[in-house]
Amino acid sequence: MRKVRFVEPAKVYRMIKDELDAAYFDCMARGELIDRGHLRSFEENLARFVGTKYAVGLNSGYDALHMSLRAAGIGPGDEVVVPAHTFVATCSAVVNVGATPVLVDVGKDFNIDVDRVEESLTPRTRAIIAVHLSGYMADMPRILRIAEKHGLKVVEDACQSLGSSIDGKMAGSFGLTGCWSFYPFKILGGYGDGGAVTTDDPEVALFARRMRYNGEDRDTGEYHGHGFTCLLDNLQAAFLDVKLRHLPAWIVRRKAVAEMYRRGLSGIPGLMLPHYDRPGFDHVYQNYTVRSTRGNEFSEYLKANGIEVLTQFRKPYYRHEALGLPDRGFPETEALSREVCSLPMNVELDDEEIEYVIRMVRSFYGLA
Ligand SMILES: *Cc1c(COP(=O)(O)O)cnc(C)c1O
Question: What architecture (CATH level 2) is domain 247-364?
Answer without folding.
Answer: Alpha-Beta Complex (3.90)
